Recover the amino acids of this structure.
């Protein structure tokens, strides 16, 4: 096995154009949550027995993770329509893979699997596409090395890299230097194989899907508040994880795109069904409400252990807002589309504390500012803050560089659905990483996309 294997093949670019048209109307359900889908497959693979999953997101990021789990000895069958059956190998039971584990565009898949492999006595090479190869992995490797894993090859803490898992994993107490659910989850996954308890202390709480799923699969995990915004998570090591069915709710980070489009295209009135309202993912809805958006939560209910609702979204005027830095973890993936909403709002919106956006699928801070500017919106980056000067209806007419980033692509499309002139994007192919069927769903609501 070599760490210089060829990178994940880059798909042919698919340019897209979004135009202003009639009001959006009707109902739609966005695909399953990406974070929960990836975790459901990984945890299923760590149980002894069969786990049934419903509503799995069948996007590229999830399918690539599924493929790596097969390479490690788990069996995963697609039964159709988002239903999957996973037969696990147990905690610490992964077999050494023959080839490179290719995660494509998925930072979550890669970082969580680094953790899962770090607790097994095997060696594996991790790789991904051109975007994932640029993203920092050192932040994950550092705690995993404390647990006993060894990084055998990696240029500059990036992919491709080869990791030798620990023979005798050591439980650690870890305080992530940045708020990151991926980092927290990698350490907890590695901690599953260690004797004694592994503790993660977060200064700022991040999405809690890993903790919830650990409990769901029978692990002994305790979560207590820590400081004003943080949490302490303590996991008892070496549990036998027991299979448990998983129902994946609709992804709020995907719902964000039709939701903001519904607010911006004049006269729109749409319903987005079954959107997950986990409080650690709900920052966008809170912020849009402060901007005066009309978002009604209908038929509140529980799906798969999460509160969900049908969201009725009606277009209307928005006002600028200041978004505090402590809200970032609960809407980290939603800033590009919030910036688009801010471009249509009255006044200057300031989004503070966006440092982590620089290390997403692209430098999202720069890509977001560029996508606005090229369409006639005044936007500046001030330190780690993004400042957007709203002016009613943006001119549009720009060609947006998407940098292999699905969320930049979808945000630019949303901008173009209400701007004076059409907005073009250079490549919509990466939308399939998180939101297969995006173009069809938007067209179903009446959007003009070509
Ligand atoms: C994710 C965590 C976030 C988010 C990503 C999904 C997860 O990343 O941006 O899309 O599922 O844990 P970070 O943990 O790096 O902030």
């Amino acid at each position: 096995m070599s760490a210089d294997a060829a990178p994940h093949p880059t798909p042919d670019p698919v340019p897209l154009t979004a135009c202003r048209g009639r009001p959006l109307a009707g109902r739609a359900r966005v695909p399953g949550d990406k974070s929960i889908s990836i975790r459901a497959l990984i945890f299923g693979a760590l149980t002894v027995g069969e786990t049934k999953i419903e509503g799995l997101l069948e996007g590229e990021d999830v399918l690539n993770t599924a493929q790596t789990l097969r390479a490690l000895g788990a069996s995963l069958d697609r039964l159709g329509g988002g239903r999957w059956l996973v037969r696990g190998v147990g905690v610490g039971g992964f077999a050494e893979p023959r080839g490179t584990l290719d995660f494509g565009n998925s930072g979550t898949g890669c970082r969580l699997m680094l953790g899962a492999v770090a607790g097994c006595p095997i060696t594996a090479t991790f790789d991904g596409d051109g975007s994932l190869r640029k993203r920092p992995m050192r932040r994950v490797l550092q705690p995993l090395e404390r647990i006993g894993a060894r990084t055998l090859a990696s240029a500059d803490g990036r992919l491709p890299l080869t990791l030798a898992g620990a023979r005798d994993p050591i439980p650690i107490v870890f305080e992530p230097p940045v708020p990151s659910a991926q980092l927290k989850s990698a350490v907890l996954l590695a901690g599953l194989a260690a004797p004694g308890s592994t503790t993660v202390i977060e200064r700022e709480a991040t999405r809690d899907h890993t903790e919830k799923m650990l409990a769901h699969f029978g692990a002994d995990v305790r979560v207590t508040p820590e400081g004003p915004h943080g949490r302490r998570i303590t996991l008892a090591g070496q549990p036998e994880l027991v299979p448990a069915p998983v129902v994946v709710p609709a992804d709020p980070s995907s719902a964000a795109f039709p939701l903001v489009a519904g607010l911006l295209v004049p006269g729109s009135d749409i319903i987005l069904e079954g959107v997950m309202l986990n409080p650690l993912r709900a920052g966008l809805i809170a912020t849009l409400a402060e901007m005066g958006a009309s978002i009604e939560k209908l038929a509140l209910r529980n799906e798969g252990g999460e509160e969900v609702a049908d969201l009725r979204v009606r277009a209307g005027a928005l006002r600028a807002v200041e978004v505090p830095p402590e809200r970032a973890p609960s809407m980290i993936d939603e800033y590009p589309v919030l910036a688009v909403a801010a471009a249509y709002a009255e006044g200057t919106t300031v989004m503070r504390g966006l440092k982590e956006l620089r290390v997403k699928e692209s430098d999202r801070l720069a890509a977001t500012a560029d996508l606005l500017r090229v369409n006639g919106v005044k936007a500046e980056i001030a330190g780690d803050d993004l400042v957007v000067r709203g002016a009613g209806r943006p001119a549009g007419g720009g060609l947006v560089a998407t940098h292999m980033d699905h969320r930049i692509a979808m945000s630019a499309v949303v901008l173009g659905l209400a701007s004076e002139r059409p907005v073009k994007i250079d490549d919509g192919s990466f939308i399939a990483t998180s939101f297969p069927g995006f173009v069809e769903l938007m067209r179903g609501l009446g959007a003009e996309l070509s």
Observations:
- The two ends are 43 Å apart (CA to CA).
- The mean pLDDT is 96.
- The longest strand covers residues 294-303.
- The longest helix spans residues 252-264.
